[in-house]
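[retry 2/3] Spc97/Spc98: previous attempt timed out, resubmitting with same input.
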Amino acid sequence: MEEEDQRKVTDLVIELVRRLLSQQNPQNPQSPNLNSPHFSQSLRYALRILSSRLTPSIAPDADAIAESIKRRLATQGNSSDALTFADLYTKFASKNGPGSVNNKWAVLYLLKIVSEDRKTANNGMDSSVFLPNLGLNDEGVGNDLRALNGKESREKDWKNGVLLVSKDPENLREISFREFRNVVKDENEVTEEVLVRDVLYACQGIDGKYVKFDSNLDGYALSDSVKVPRGTRIIVRKLCELGWLFRKVKGYISESMDRFPAEDVGTVGQAFCAALQDELSEYYKLLAVLEAQSMNPIPLVSENASSGNYLSLRRLSVWFAEPMVKMRLMAVLVDKCKVLRGGAMAGAIHLHAQHGDPLVHDFMRRLLRRVCSPLFEMVRSWVLEGELEDIFAEFFIVGQPVKAESLWREGYRLHAGMLPSFISQSLAQRILRTGKSINFLRVCCDDRGWADATTESAAAAGTTTRRGGLGYGETDALESLVMEAAKRIDKHLLDVIYKRYKFKEHCLAIKRYLLLGQGDFVQYLMDIVGPELSEPANTISSFKLAGLLESAIRSSNAQYDDPDILDRLRVKMMPHGTGDRGWDVFSLEYDARVPLDTVFTESVMTRYLRIFNFLWKLRRVEHALIGAWKTMKPNCITSHAFTKLQRAVKLQLLSTLRRCQVLWDEMNHFVTNLQYYIMFEVLEVSWSNFSNEMEVAKDLDDLLAAHEKYLHSIVEKSLLGERSQTLYKSLFVLFDLILRFRSNADRLYEGIYELQARTVESSVNSRENKSRRQAKDKSSESGSWVNEGRKALTQRASEFLQNMGQDLDALASEYKSLLEGFLAQLPVQQHIDLKFLLFRLDFTEFYSRQHPTV
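[retry 2/3] Spc97/Spc98: success.
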């Protein structure tokens, strides 16, 4: 079967040669003699061409060849032929399977060449140089004409997208190659091989023989004295940009490594330099490969040129495409990071990683993993161990030496300038609090239970506690680790604060003793220290007051409290001046030791002291009114003993007593409602809210915020805030006026008691008729009414009651004026609870009816 096919092919070739030779001589259309030498030579030449490995330098694309043929027919004005050809090609291309032509593009290519050859023959040109010229009549045509026709034919064929391949028996190509080589040598003083090697040197930062660094141009360039074409000079300049970039990157690495121990480089800067050096190592490998290729000569034109292992400037530009992109990125990063370090450097590099080019994105990601390695190691060490390994101040958490009581608030803080952009502010705050909690447990609470919590958190997050467990691009893993660690460590910290150090019990103790919530203790303390505090402040012994405090504790339910709590309660004498009484300087303080002093800081205890002074003054005023009531009640009952006084004096006495009682009622109404407001609407409500927030607090910051809110609420509602200073001063003026009333009431009832005693004594003396000397001695005593006559006694009583009535009227008028002013300020207060205080004080609208402005 194969022999039969071979015979068919041979017959076809013979028929093809015969027809081509018959077309060569149109005047003699007879068929050529098959036994002639000319035919035999033409047949051998055709077989040699068909059996050779020569192939057209075009892609074997049948559709492209068909489109070229159709376009040529259309441009020649043969539109109908173009449509006919398109229809025929469609049918031809659809034929597949047995009996069909497999190599369709070759058939189309042959038809196209034959058509072009016919056209050339019709134009009067010698077709002996083309493929149909199988006669090889060397005597008939000269070499020059052959070369000319061949050149024109090749230009024509390239223009149509198809290259004619023919045998060149006269070595015309070699002649052309030699001429081209001579032209190139005339135009170039330096060979391309030398320029390639100089460019490779320049790309390593080394001056070559012809390509050197020009400081004026700030780059590598060919010397102007070197004779090369302008295109060659331009491409050399473009390729040498890589050397300029390399010089910049290499200079930065060398400079940074030389001054590494300095703080302005740091571990992140060192990692950045190491990453750049690794990239330069890959770059060196590429240059080594290219330098090996540059040793091979560059062929001008050759059949093997396309596959030769040589290096030209244009090939070098292709090799340098990817390194150029990377080197430009590294140069940009070097310029950006010259004045940056630590987290700021990592953040700046991260901004350049947001790129759509996959090559750039992968390169920056690989670089950032190296650069951020020290930073993530600092995060891991801080979150899991509480260690701040930041020798060069690169971390976004800064620590400073402080006392244990200030460790939580002032020991550590965020450095916004070192916070990289790929770590959010909320995550940074959580990282800060986690490490701070570990240090607080270790330093202030002397606790080691946090180690188990960190191990559990790492296991729950699916990471390891070893170094290198985190890296750039693993933000989700970082957030998971931080969240798990924060949750467990914060829970452990609150457990230690609540259970081991009894934070809630201490807060309740402060409420009961400093905020006067323990009623029996406060009442008994005020009873026993009252006489002592009435003395001048500089004469009072703090030791004696401490003893009285112990007595008040033992005599009240406070004795059943935890001894540790009672030991923290102490007497404090505030600084005092001349004329101050003990009431003005007496206070209680609570010793909040480590770690509770983190919550109860000095400033917090100062605010508690302000609240205590206010509540102590309020309790003192209440105690004074209660004392006045105790004095008033017996005298009101015994006032009926003045039966022997004149009616006018008796009416005056009853009027004075009534005015005193009415004024006491008004003052007692005000103080009682104010105290109710403070104790229930302020202290109890604030405590209830604080207790609820303590239960839901998730970390120490929440607890501190809840306590701060609790204390701020008390200060604002108790008229101690900055916005209530005018109201606070008015209230203390009212307190002082009530204390003055207590003094006047005591003086009134002491006078009444003495008047009653003297009246009884005068009656006894008149019956017993005592000696005049005794009466004279008695009358000589200051303020004595004994042995005076009934008329004198009545006159003295009238004067005393009149003076007391005037004093009470003055007090009542002043109290009314001050109370109206106080009530008038309440509606304009911003806090709603202060407006509710007005509602309590004027529940019956008594004051508003008397004074519509209230």
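[retry 2/3] Spc97/Spc98: DSSP finds 33 helices and six strands in the chain.
[retry 2/3] clearing retry counter.
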